[in-house]
Design brief:
Strand content: 15-25%
Bound molecules: S-adenosylmethionine
Number of domains: 1
Strand order of the largest sheet: 5-4-1-6-7-9-8-10
CATH class: Alpha Beta
Shape: globular
CATH superfamily: Vaccinia Virus protein VP39
CATH topology: Rossmann fold
């Protein structure tokens, strides 16, 4: 079925961007007492060994999380929160265990919040279930071996009327781009005030290029504010993607996070963190970042 396994990519520059944004967003949302539901539509296995075979083969975390943890300069608060959270899963200075999005969310959530994890690959859904069982989180966390694009809608709107939906597909299938857009559209219709966060790869493929533009249009039509953060760590020459190829192989030069209804504090937090991220994770002179927002 799918060849994408996040274990090969855990802790890479795309994860640094995505998880820093996820943590900053959650920290803001959790300031309110009312229960929050986190809907992780493409959850992965939850925990990754950076010294295991898969991660060692690709060694992507060496140019990602490892550089952040080894930084000798003071980190921007959002990047510092990311580094501290990863360190919380490790005993030494270097990271051997990397928490995926379900573990990051669970660590921050309060007992009355809910985390729904959707993962289509049976092996990863089983691994995630097993990994999460150690936390004894009970009813707080649910894992479903289902299609995230399809199943997410049944949770919207959530009973608490507060939700963050993280949509982080592998984009192995070209239609993932359209399905992301359709999910955001359907989500906004069912639950206009939800926070929608989409990760996407920046690669020379028209669908990837178009996605943020389409999401901006979608947010605009719904009258909702949006925020777009992108991180480039190197030039794209060496990484022209062909259909069906794993977009997050070591050649991935850049990626972005697009949020609809972002917390109002996020832009300022990223204005500090993104330039530092680009500097710390730069692989060549093409390293750069984008931060833009609109609507509302
Ligand atoms: N969100 C995770 C994190 O940040 O730690 C990483 C997720 S990984 C990039 C994408 C995951 O989506 C893979 O585990 C893959 O098996 C899964 N997947 C692919 N298509 C899916 C679908 N239609 N519904 C749910 N999961 C899917």
């Amino acid at each position: 079925m799918f060849s994408y396994r996040h274990a090969f990519h855990a802790g890479n520059h795309a994860d640094v961007l995505k998880h820093t944004v996820l943590i900053a967003t959650l920290q803001h949302l959790l300031q309110k007492e009312a229960a929050l539901m986190v809907l992780d539509t493409h959850a992965g296995a939850g925990l990754y060994r950076l010294d295991g075979d898969a991660a060692r083969t690709s060694a992507e975390s060496a140019d990602g999380v490892a550089r952040v943890l080894a930084a000798t300069e003071p980190l921007a608060p959002a990047l510092q929160a990311y580094a501290e959270l990863v360190r919380g899963f490790n005993s030494g200075a270097a990271a051997r265990i990397y928490p995926g999005s379900p573990f990051i969310s669970q660590r921050l959530l309060r007992p009355h919040d809910r985390l729904k994890c959707l993962e289509l690959l049976p092996a990863d859904a089983r691994l995630l279930q097993r990994n999460l069982e150690q936390l004894e989180a009970g009813r707080q966390v649910t894992v479903l071996n289902e299609d995230g694009f399809e199943s997410a809608r049944k949770f919207l709107p959530p009973p608490s009327r507060r939700a963050l939906l993280l949509c982080d597909p592998s984009y192995e299938i070209k239609t993932d781009y359209q399905r992301v857009q359709a999910l955001a559209q359907e989500g906004l219709k069912r639950f206009p005030t939800g926070v929608y966060a989409v990760w996407y790869p920046i690669i020379p493929r028209p669908e990837a290029h178009d996605l943020p533009r389409r999401l901006k249009t979608l947010a605009g039509k719904a009258g909702r504010p949006w925020l777009h953060a992108a991180l480039t760590v190197k030039g794209s020459k060496a990484s022209a993607a062909t259909p069906g190829e794993d977009v997050r192989r070591p050649g991935l030069p850049a990626s972005g996070m697009f949020l609809i209804n972002p917390p109002y504090t996020l832009e300022a937090a990223l204005r500090e963190a993104l330039p530092q991220m680009a500097r710390l994770l730069a692989q060549d002179r093409h390293a750069a970042h984008v931060l833009e927002s609109g609507g509302g």
